[in-house]
Amino acid sequence: MKAYIKLLRPHQYLKNGFIFFPLFFSFKFRDLHLLGRVAVVAACFCLVASAIYILNDYFDIEEDRKHPEKKHRPLASGAVPVRNGLLLMVILLAVGGAGISLISWEALMLTGFYVVNNLLYSFRLKHIAILDVSMIAVGFCLRLFIGSAAGEGQLPLSMWIIMCTFLLALFLALAKRRDDVLLRAEGKKVRKSIDGYNLEFINGAMVITATLTIVGYISYCISEEVTTRLDTHDLFFTVIFVILGILRYMQITFVEEKSGSPTKVLIRDLFLQLVILGWLVTFVLLVPAARNLIF
Predict the structure, then answer these.
(1) Which of 23-32, 45-54, 117-126, 165-174 has the lowest mean pLDDT?
(2) Are 250 and 259 in contact (CB under 8 A)?
(3) Phi-psi region of 3 (alpha: psi -120 to 50; beta: other; left: phi over 0)
(4) Any idea of the CA torsion for 238, 22, 138, 184, to the nearest 10 degrees?
(5) Alpha-carbon torsion 247, 250, 254, 260, what sign?
(6) In the list 173, 229, 264, 290, which could disulfide-bond 133, CB 3.0-4.6 Å?
(7) DSSP conformational letter for 256
(8) How many Å apart are CA 30 and CA 145, to the nearest integer?
(9) Which residue has the higher pLDDT, 29 or 184?
(10) 151 with 26: CB under 8 angstroms?
(11) Three-state DSSP class for 27?
(12) What would you measure as the largest C-alpha separation in the chain, in angstroms?
């Protein structure tokens, strides 16, 4: 049973928190109807995501067996028979898709796009440098649209959240690829796309995306449209937490060289957790609409 749970990668469900972003930034967490709809969609999407993880593991079996850590994955190690894994994948897709369809057909269609995006990634695009990390970033943006679709038109998305999410996801994906480049330097080639990367390129690309993410967030904080809608001109105080978070992640990537799994980094790193908490508390205290939800 432990091997099957590991196959689902439940720790990766943290990424699906992006589905709740449209609800959070619309300040409608007290609307239990909307909260319930988004929660059901998020839970069902987790099942679909697990099915995709199984599919990725199936296609990556040979590469994973050459990887010092991924060789212990259930399919690569043989802890879960391939046939059983594929059967579980089909069940998860069916149950997850059916659950989402009960809430929103638009969310189901977007989930379908997510599945297609990952199929293209698994079959071909993950082997093409730059395009591989871009597809990962697109997957994060699709989570935003799915969360918005679950809200019956009451959870609109702004260009700011889409742009910042794409840039941040691209930054994290590049950090993950850097870990693969380091493994290649040790003589452990793990995927074809790594041929299109080297440390100099990835380091430069990470600096660029980190800079753009920070600039994009600063632009969001001082935008006249945003300050008017949120009824505050002090949102720029939250910028410090964004900068600290990105600098810490760059430290983990460049100095500690432990950026192979962004989700595990976040789960284990207290500094990042405190930065996110600091951002959240500051944001709530500065934005009247968010403050009114709590106090």
Answers:
(1) 117-126
(2) no
(3) alpha
(4) 50
(5) positive
(6) 173
(7) S
(8) 21
(9) 29
(10) yes
(11) coil
(12) 57
